[in-house]
Amino acid sequence: MKKIKIKFEINDEIKEHIIQSLKDDFFFEETDDPDFALFECATAQRCFKYKCVRILYIGENLRPDFNLFDYAIGFDNIQFGDRYLHHPNYLGPHFRKSFNRAMRKNEYAEETYLRKDKFCNFVVSNGRDAYPIREEMLDKLSGYKMVDSAGRYRNNMDGYIVPLGELDEFRKNYKFSLAFENSSTVGYTTEKIIRAWSGMTIPVYWGDPEIEKYFNKNAFINVMAYSSIEEAIKRIIEIDQDDNLYLKIMKEPIISEDSPLQAMKEENYLIDFLRNIFNRTPQEALRRTNVDYGWGYHYETRMRVQNEMEQNKLARLVYKFGKVEEKLKRRFK
């Protein structure tokens, strides 16, 4: 069994998924002097600590910098030899159970769908840095019927906040779920639409302009396909008032037969990509050029220095505010 010296700068769920999936092929020795290192968006700036092979797992609306990382896994449908894998986060270990439930959402008896007695839900915890169209839809759709907001943001359920682990159970009595991305970029489709389906609802979606390349357009309401929010709301009302139309949509599969997701959804899709990297020696797996010389070296040095300056500035600000807080506490004690 091949030993892999590795550093996991990534969340425990993904880490354990990788280790368990590859345990028959590799023994992973975790070390601060690794041959391979895995990062996520929140830890990407730590890449400068390691000169080894770097792999970035992207879970946000960001693009990989291949001058700093040898390999990347993300939302964008791009081709870059063996250095990149198109693998949206809803196919990863975080949301695999939700994805599998979503795939079965059309297999139930009609009574399962018709017994729903609530209209639409909206579950958002972070209201910052999102396109205003999300709030516009919430406000305008609420003019037709009450939209239950059960997140920390715009909560209208007497403070009740549904735990993420109970989201499917919460949604089972609703016909629709607002599933808006925080931002819109081609390829950037997160778990939001998947979790709406896994809760047995019809997603009202906004975000990826090319969403219909991957998901069956007849299984959800794509707000971006309408000329205005008002037109999308007309369609929602039409479905809400017509049980036959509602049932037709609920019985649609979420993925069409010619969708690229047919191959991407396989459990080994991500693992095979990583296995291919780890099967190489560290020297063979390295893809960054001029690690120690030339423009690649100068580029990384500049980015590293800039990152250190930003971190030092942040540390000084935290220290400064901490000292001010201490003075205020002593003054008003």
Q: Could you explain the architecture of this structure?
A:
By secondary structure, the chain is an alpha/beta fold. The protein folds into 2 domains: 2-91 and 267-331, Glycosyl transferase family 10, N-terminal domain (Rossmann fold); 106-253, 3-Layer(aba) Sandwich (Rossmann fold). Helix content is 37%, strand content 16%. The chain contains 12 helices and 11 strands. It has helices at 12-21, 96-103, 110-114, 133-142, 167-171, 191-198, 229-240, 243-250, 261-264, 268-278, 282-285, 294-331; strands spanning 2-9, 26-30, 36-40, 53-57, 71-74, 84-86, 118-122, 147-149, 174-180, 202-206, 221-222. The chain has a 6-stranded parallel sheet. Strands 8-7-9-10-11 form a 5-stranded parallel sheet, sandwiched between helices. It is globular, with a radius of gyration of 23 Å. It starts with a strand and ends with a helix.
In brief:
The protein is of the alpha/beta class and 333 residues long.
